[in-house]
Amino acid sequence: MVRSPVNHKQIVTSCHAVTQGSVTPESGRIYFRECNIIIERLKQCHREHTFLKFLGKCNDLDREMRRCLEMELKTKRAKSREHAERMQRRLNSSSE
Prior knowledge:
Layout (H helix, E strand, L loop, with lengths): L7 H12 L13 H16 L10 H37 L1
C-alpha cells in the first residue's frame, strides 16, 4: 500500500485560516475538542500580544495546534480508509 505524504502546505493553510478567524463552527469545520481549546488559546495569545506574536511569542501554541490538527487529519484518514475497505469487501462479496 502506498502512503501519501502529509501535505504540510494544506495543514499550514488550514492553521492560518483557523488563527485568522475564517474557520468557525458556522463554517462547517469541526475539530477535535482538544484542538479547539488550543486554537482558542492561540487566538487569545494573538489578541493579547499584537506585536510580540510577530517575534515568536505564540509560536509554541502554533506548533501545538499544528500537531493537533495533523493528528486529527491522520485519524480521519485512517477512519476513511477503514470505511473504504469495508465497502470494498462488501462490494466484492456481493458480486461473487
